[in-house]
Amino acid sequence: MKTLFYLLALSGLILALAACNRDNGVAVASGATPPIPTTVGPVPGGATPPAAHANPFSGNEVALTEGRKLFNWYNCSGCHGGHAGGGMGPSLRDEIWLYGNRDDQIFDSIAQGRAHGMPAWGPKIPEQQIWKLVTYIKSLRTPQEPDPPLMPEQEGIVKGSINSVPEAQK
Amino acid sequence: MRRACRPIFVFFAVAALFVGCNSRSHTSQPENPPHGGVMQPYAGKLPPDDGQWTMPAKDYGAYRYSQLDQINTSNAKDLKLAFTFSTGTTNGLEAAPLVVNNTMYIITSFPNMLYALDLTKPGAPMKWAYDPKPVASAKGVACCDLVNRGGSYYNGKIIYATLDGYVVGVNANDGHEVWKTKVGDINIGETITMAAQVVKDKVLVGNSGGEFGVRGWIVALNADTGKLVWKAYNTGPDKDVLIGLRFKPFYDMDKGKDLGVSTWNPDQWKIGGGNVWGWIAYDPDLNIVYHGTGNPGPWNPDERPGDNKWTSGIFARDADTGEALWYYQWSPHDMHDYDGINEQILLDLPIDGKTRKVLVRPERNGYIYVLDRTTGEVLSATPYGHITTSSGVDLKTGRLKVNEELKPSPGKVVHGACPAAPGVKDWNPSAFSPKTGFLYLPHNNLCMDWESVETGYIAGTPYVGADVKMYPGPGGNGGVFSAWDPINKKEVWHFDDRFPVWSGALATAGNVVFYGTMDGWFIARDAQDGHELWRFKTGSGIIGQPITYKGPDGKQYVAILSGVGGWAGAVVTGGLDVRDPTAALGFANATAELPKYTNKGGMLYVFQLP
């Protein structure tokens, strides 16, 4: 009985490890260990907030491109817009940051989630990938932004007439 | 039998056309002169009218028509404010107020408050408020603003659904909760935005979540207790869809066993959409309910080969058991997010010399369909807007003739796909006037660029897979309000608007039709020739549904909720950044100017004659 238990535990561990190595973005079983939570609100009396955790990928161009991919991969784009202009979730392109715009604050918003609909991705996304997402988000509207938004090519559309398609014939 | 047209009406209609040509216009685009249509009073049976408004469309046939006629084409210019009420919300208000027993009921966007206003007292003070306390995280899985489209009154209760997946029955006299039933799960992306529709002793509600890989369903609950009576899914095995021996679809494309499984890749139907978030109509004589089904998920069509039954179509079901009787698919293997959930207006129309029991459906893919509502046969499908994504409907096979050139495929950006994802008309319901015989259509004039992108399913997150950018169609106006002759299948008149006309329409026996614009104008037009009778600027953009009722003083009132939002207005309510044209699933680009014209904030406006 005891042997069976250990066997099961071992196989579970192997499965878990295997899942950790599957860097396909979706089926990852392990998640990030959020760093010590950073402050979001003001510190009473105006004291200096605790030191921020540094983004290990700050200025890393490869991480920037990967962050852009992950932004689509984890369906961030579905809520926040294809280029983070917002939709179901708020815009990340503008200057408004409800929960702070320091790298570690953005990390926490992703990892812990927020009460008004932002899911807690900590249990789903590995820590390194969250930092890459942060790297991408911080690049928005800067010359470094990968794959910046393009306006649609609507020339030639605003012509023709209403009801220009013939009615279906029997 | 009735002759096709009566000379006297022809005379008036023609005279009206000339008047219409000279009418002034306040719309952002020059108005077009009326160009067709002959007024043809409706010969079919009309539901009784007690001056109240007890269900979303006022009646089962979805006419949104009131027999009240105190407000008419001569005096509508004198309409003035009777009272107002702040809803305390900043998201879009899409619901129709209800009026029962001298009380008005207002259902708001999230947090889905229910307010009761006493119409017997000056200023209609609040009687009570009911707070269903929906969980805040529901806001994160609502695709297109936090709207609610209304509810129904039944046997002393106001019944409606909350964004976080509950249906509630609330005592209409004192606001106490009588029952509360959980039907949806936000953790897999299910929300509820549709107007709960009472049919006899049941209430029908379906789920939203077509952008989250949510499997669509509709449930019927006992309206007195909230207990589940039947549940029908819109994908999966026949037994789940309540398809059995009584199921007789008209076209071969909809016949076969377990098409809800076999028209998908293995297991994809489990996350395939086909949600029920629009309108339900009911024919008491046939005892049939009609409801549409939403888009298949994800939007990226290459990730779900097949016809994707039973998405983007319409079901006729037995009202008591939910058994499917027939089905028709507007957009098989939808490639442009053309949900099939719009309103269906049940009419008995003279067609080819015979009176046919039909349903008229202004569909998102750009055609006004006339279906035989007993069989599901398509009698006609006529464009009512600019269409490039298809070239008509093959009436032999029932199949939409898709334009292959505008088919999305990986790595290709499709330009100039019209209509755009919200269609020629989205949820915003039309109205039918039996007096003119015309349908009144608030709708869109939008096209889009579409690029399919790879997407992976993660429960409770968006499952879309398309970069969409919308913009106004031919003429440059985003919206249109038009009158449509369903017998002659042509437009009677139309008025352009700068933005999509995202409000509902109301028709009245006084020959006045009402609707609102996204920049906040509440407008009354002559039902016959369309000329403008009156307009009032409300505090925010209008995406609500106008209603009219008889007050305790015996006088006619008109009510509308103002409060911009919805998918079209998310650019305002969500404070979106239009430097990203794909924001709000691509809608932000089409309404990028809207924040310059209006601001968020919910308010009820009620009007009366002096």
Report on the architecture of this protein.
- The complex is a heterodimer of chains A (170) and B (610).
- With 170 residues, chain A is an all-alpha fold.
- Chain A has five helices and no strands.
- Chain A has a domain at 53-147: Orthogonal Bundle (Cytochrome Bc1 Complex, Chain D, domain 2).
- In chain A, helix 2 packs across helix 5 and helix 4 (103-112) packs across helix 5.
- Chain A is globular, with a radius of gyration of 22 Å.
- Chain B has four helices and 38 strands.
- Chain B has 610 residues and is mainly β.
- Helix content of chain B is 5%, strand content 33%.
- Classes of the chains: A mainly alpha (170), B mainly beta (610).
- Chains A and B meet through helix 3 of A and strand 22, strand 23, strand 28 and strand 29 of B.
What would you call the shape of chain B? globular
Write down the CATH class of the domain at 236-271 and 278-409 in chain B.
Mainly Beta
Helix content of chain A: 25-40%
Tally of individual helices of chain A: 5
* Biggest sheet: strand arrangement of chain B: 1-32-33-34-35
- CATH H-level superfamily title of the domain at 53-147 in chain A: Cytochrome c-like domain
State the end-to-end distance of chain B: 43 Å
Helix/strand class of chain B: mainly beta
Mind telling me which CATH architecture of the domain at 53-147 in chain A this is? Orthogonal Bundle
Poorly predicted regions of chain B are 1-33
The largest interface is: A-B, 51 and 73 residues
Gyration radius over CA of chain A? 22 Å
Total beta-strand segments of chain A:
0
Summarize the structure.
The complex is a heterodimer of chains A (170) and B (610). Chain A is mainly alpha-helical and 170 residues long.
Keywords for this entry:
heterodimer, A: 170 residues, Cytochrome Bc1 Complex, Chain D, domain 2, globular, disordered C terminus, B: 610 residues, mainly beta, Thrombin, subunit H, 5-stranded mixed β-sheet
